[in-house]
C-alpha cells in the first residue's frame, strides 16, 4: 500500500468508497467541491486537499467519482498539469465512452495513465464494499489499479481497452432498464388486480423473475420510499450515453428507449430527484388514465 491515493467526489457513492480505502489502510487524500463532505473522512484518517491541483501533485493514483462527462473534464483540466508522469487516473464516473477514449489519449500524451472504471451495485453496494467495476484501459494500468479497487469491489475486471469500461456500463444500464420496467410493470399490475404487493414481491421475486431490482427496489416500493439511491435524473443521463453508444455501433435498444420516455414523463412533472423505482407510480397513473 505504498502508493498515495487521491479520491475526488464524495457523494452517495464516492464517500463510502473512499471510506473503505481509509479503513483498509490506504494512504488517502480527498477533495470535494462541497468541502464539508470531507470532514467525516478527515476524522477517519484521510488527508484533505485544499484544491484539485494540490491533490494531483500529492498523489500517485487519483480516483474520480463525479457525475457527468463535463465534470470529469473539469477535474482533469485541474489535476493533469499538477500530476507527475507515471501517475494514474481511475474514473468511476459513468460518462460517454467517446470521452473516455479522448481522456485516455490526452493523459497518455502527458505520461499519465487513465482507466475508465464505472461501477454498478448502487449505494448499498458502495456502503457494503460490494461493487462490480468494469475497467477499460491499458493492461498495466488496470493491473496497477486493481489492488486499490479491491477495497470496495466484490469484482473488478479489465473488459478491454480505453472506453471499454464505459461500453460495458452501457450494457449494464440497458439490462437495468429491462429489469426495472419488469418489476414496476408487474407490481402496478398486481396492485390493479387486488393482489398483496408484499406477497407479490416475495413470491415473484423468489422465482424465475427474481432480480436485483426485485431485491432492492421491491422493498422501497412497498414502503413508499422514493428517496434516491439512484435518481431518475442520473438514470436519464446514463440513457443518453446509451443512445449515443448504440447509435455509434448500430445497435437497437427499444426497451431502453421506452423506459427513458416513461422516466422522462416523471422528470417533466418535477420528480427527477426521486428513485428510478418511482417508475411504478408512472405505470399506475397510466393504468388509471386508460
Question: Key features?
Answer:
single chain; 290 residues; alpha/beta; Rossmann fold; N-(1-d-carboxylethyl)-l-norvaline Dehydrogenase, domain 2; 2 domains; six-stranded parallel beta sheet; three-stranded mixed beta sheet; 14% strand; globular
Shape call: globular
Order of helices and strands: EHEHEHEHEHEEHEHEHHHHHH
Strand order in the largest sheet: 3-2-1-4-5-6
CATH superfamily heading of the largest domain? NAD(P)-binding Rossmann-like Domain
Number of domains: 2
Helix content: 40-55%
- What does the radius of gyration come to? 20 Å
Helices, by number, come to 13
Mean pLDDT: 97
CATH level-1 class of the largest domain: Alpha Beta
β-strand percent reads 5-15%
Major sheet attributes: 6 strands, parallel
Could you say what the CATH topology of the largest domain is called? Rossmann fold
Q: Please provide the count of β strands.
A: 9
* Helical/strand content category: alpha/beta
CATH architecture of the largest domain: 3-Layer(aba) Sandwich
What are the low-pLDDT stretches, counting only 5+ consecutive residues below 50? Answer: none
Structure description:
With 290 residues, the chain is of the alpha/beta class. It folds into two domains: 4-161, NAD(P)-binding Rossmann-like Domain (Rossmann fold, 3-Layer(aba) Sandwich), CATH 3.40.50; 167-289, N-(1-d-carboxylethyl)-l-norvaline Dehydrogenase, domain 2. The chain contains 13 helices and nine strands. It is globular.
Amino acid at each position: 500500500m505504498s502508493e498515495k491515493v487521491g479520491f475526488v467526489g464524495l457523494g452517495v457513492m464516492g464517500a463510502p468508497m473512499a471510506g473503505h480505502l481509509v479503513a483498509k489502510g490506504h494512504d488517502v487524500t480527498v477533495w470535494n467541491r462541497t468541502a464539508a463532505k470531507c470532514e467525516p473522512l478527515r476524522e477517519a484518517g484521510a488527508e484533505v486537499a485544499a484544491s484539485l491541483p494540490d491533490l494531483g501533485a500529492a498523489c500517485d493514483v487519483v480516483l474520480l467519482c463525479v457525475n457527468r462527462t463535463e465534470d470529469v473534464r473539469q477535474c482533469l483540466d485541474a489535476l493533469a498539469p499538477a500530476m507527475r508522469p507515471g501517475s494514474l487516473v481511475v474514473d468511476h464516473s459513468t460518462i460517454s465512452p467517446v470521452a473516455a477514449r479522448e481522456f485516455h489519449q490526452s493523459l497518455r500524451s502527458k505520461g499519465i495513465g487513465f482507466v475508465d472504471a464505472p461501477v454498478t451495485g448502487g449505494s448499498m453496494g458502495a456502503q457494503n464494499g460490494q461493487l462490480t467495476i468494469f475497467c477499460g484501459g491499458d493492461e498495466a494500468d488496470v493491473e496497477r489499479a486493481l489492488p486499490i479497487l479491491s477495497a470496495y469491489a466484490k469484482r473488478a475486471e479489465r473488459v478491454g481497452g480505453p472506453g471499454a469500461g464505459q461500453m460495458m456500463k452501457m450494457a449494464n444500464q440497458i439490462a437495468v432498464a429491462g429489469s426495472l420496467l419488469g418489476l414496476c410493470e408487474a407490481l402496478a399490475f398486481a396492485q390493479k388486480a387486488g393482489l398483496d404487493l408484499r406477497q407479490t414481491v416475495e413470491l415473484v421475486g423468489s422465482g424465475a423473475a427474481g432480480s436485483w431490482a426485485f431485491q432492492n427496489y421491491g422493498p422501497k416500493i412497498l414502503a413508499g420510499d422514493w428517496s434516491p439511491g439512484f435518481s431518475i435524473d442520473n438514470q436519464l443521463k446514463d440513457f443518453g450515453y446509451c443512445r449515443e453508444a448504440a447509435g455509434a455501433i448500430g445497435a437497437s435498444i427499444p426497451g431502453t428507449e421506452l423506459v427513458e420516455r416513461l422516466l422522462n414523463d416523471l422528470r417533466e412533472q418535477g420528480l427527477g430527484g426521486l428513485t428510478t423505482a418511482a417508475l411504478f407510480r408512472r405505470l399506475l397513473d397510466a393504468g388509471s388514465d386508460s
